[in-house]
Structure formats: structure tokens, C-alpha cells
Amino acid sequence: MNKNICYTWIDEDSFSDFVKNIEKLFRTSPDYKFWLDTIPDRDICSATELTKYNDGVTIHIHHYENTLWDIVTHILEKFDENNLPINAFYICIILSELHMNGCISYVPLSHDVHDQIHNDYELTIQKYPTILDHVVYGNKEMFQTILDKYIKNFKALTEEIIND
Questions:
Q1: 10-32 pLDDT, tens per residue?
Q2: Which of 79, 95, 151, 159 is most open to solvent, judged by the fewest CB atoms within 10 Å of its CB?
Q3: Strand (E) or helix (H) holding 110
């Protein structure tokens, strides 16, 4: 495997930087924008019912249950368990596949409520219980199936390259 296309980290800070870079790479991708465009009612806050167009509220799509950080970390753990080299582009492909196939839970929230839910989940849900009525739950079984498929394919690819 070409070491120039793989990434390693030596400490917690470099790991954190790597995850942040993957998040940024994915969030700025056309695939992520396309996924956002497929979300119905993404202009209405599930907590307050304020809208982007009538109220001028900025709406964010909140990754529910697992943040994007959690998802990327889970993928990296699976790569580590399988002794696979780390490649940011390949991880973004997996993220895209998971999002596009309905494997990611989410809920539309105003910018302010989105900040609140990250700062104090319990208090935010207590204040805005309707959030839970609007969560779109991802398919966890398909999530695992897709991740396993990509791990298997990448493992086969790296073994083929090493054996050539």
C-alpha cells in the first residue's frame, strides 16, 4: 500500500485533528450537500417550528444519537480492528454511502437549539420534547452491512496490492 495515501496518528491531538479534517472534508463535499437537499422539512426547526423563510432562522441538520465525530471514530475503530491503513477519501466514501442509504439518524434544528442540544441534551429535550417526535432514525442494520462491505473490500484491495 502506498504510504503517501494513508494516515497515521501518534497521539490524541493528531487523532482529533484527523477526525476534524475528515468531518470538514465530508461536510464540504457535494455528496453531503446532496444528502442535505434530500431531507424533507429541513427548513423547519423541530423544536420551535420556526422556519428559514418566514422567520429567518438558520436550520441545521443535527446528527441524532451519534454525531458525525462518533460515526467517523467508529469507522476508524473498525479500520484499526482490521489492521487497515487509514485513508480519508475512502472514509468519506463510506460516510457518503451511509448517509445516502438512510443509515444516519437526524433531526432539523435551529442554530440556537442545535447549540443547546450539544451543550445539554437532557435540558434541551425537556424544554423542547417535540424534537423526539421529528427524529428520522437511521437503519442501524444497514449501517453495519455497508461498513462491513467496505471493510471487506478495502481489506481485499490492500492484500492484493501487498501481494503484487
A1: 678 888 999 999 999 999 999 99
A2: 159
A3: strand 106-110
**3-class DSSP state for residue 5?**
helix
Residue 28 carries which side chain, given as an amino acid letter? T
Considering only CA atoms, which of 130, 146, 61, 160 is closest in space to residue 98?
146
DSSP state of 7: B
> How far is CA 97 from each of CA 45, 53, 149, rounded to the nearest angstrom?
26, 30, 11
pLDDT per position as a tens digit, 64-84: 999 999 999 999 999 999 988
The DSSP code sequence of 38-89 is T-TTTTB-TTT--BHHHH---EEEEE-SS-HHHHHHHHHHHHHHTTPPB-HH
> What's the rounded Cα separation, in Å, for the pair 113 and 115?
5
In b/e form, how buried is each residue of 141-158, taking b as 16+ CB within 10 angstroms?
Answer: eebeebbeebbeebeeeb
Q: What is the mean pLDDT of residues 96-118?
A: 97
How far apart, in whole angstroms, are the C-alpha atoms of residue 148 and residue 8? 21
Place of cell 444497514: 142
Q: What is the pLDDT of residue 85?
A: 86
